[in-house]
Amino acid sequence: MYRKMGIKLTTKYSPNFGLPKRPKKRIKFIIIHYTGMKKETAAIERLLNPKSKVSSHYYIKKNGNILNLVPDLYEAWHTGISSWKNLTSLNKHSIGIEMTNPGHYHGYDNFSIKQILSLKRLLKYLMKKYKIGYKCILGHSDISPDRKKDPGEKFPWYLLAKNKLAWWHKLDLKKIKKYRKVKLYSKKEESNFLKNLHKVGYMKNNQKKFNKKNNHFIIKAFQRRFRQDLINGKIDKECLLISKSLLIS
Fold this sequence. Notes:
By secondary structure, the protein is of the alpha/beta class. Helices cover 32% and strands 15% of the residues. Strand 1 and strand 2 (7-11) form a beta hairpin. Helix 6 (187-200) runs parallel beside helix 8. 37% of the residues are buried. The mean pLDDT is 94.
């Protein structure tokens, strides 16, 4: 065990990373995942198994303990096919943090208080070291909305945002709730909403894929992140207002 800026870390290096080292300035994002597996021990074993070809830089256990699996300057294999704004293959530009949670297919659970406390400390350290802004702290579903749901709607993005560790809108949650399920006035408003999401960063590089099916995935990813009470893949007035607020926040 060793410490980084007061953070206790246990080293368990995974062989699943890319060579050579990348320059520090290439690290622009932090991507948060959940494991999506029933047992914590099995999840860790998978990230350490060379046959799995998956890994992350850090792993936060249910009890809050943090494992360092891949050194920051090496490319861990945690995002798969992904895009955000003008970048694709986010492995090259990010640090990955896995968190123990069974996920949507195995009894999706709340993240523990100890996990979130450890995550906040780790984010503060990494953001300062690599000059990463709060708008560049993303979930796996943000960058791969057609494939992933993690870290999901139980992940406390709003709590992190209050500590300037994540992006959130500036609207009053109680006031905008009255616009939930209120239909948009026109197709133009629907189009404006989708354009707002692409400006935020969702699948901007894959505009040829902007069809009804893929838009449904993007809308759900947006809702899991910024409107967590209702994830239905449908655009309403509340969603439109949130998307507008994000562009000026």
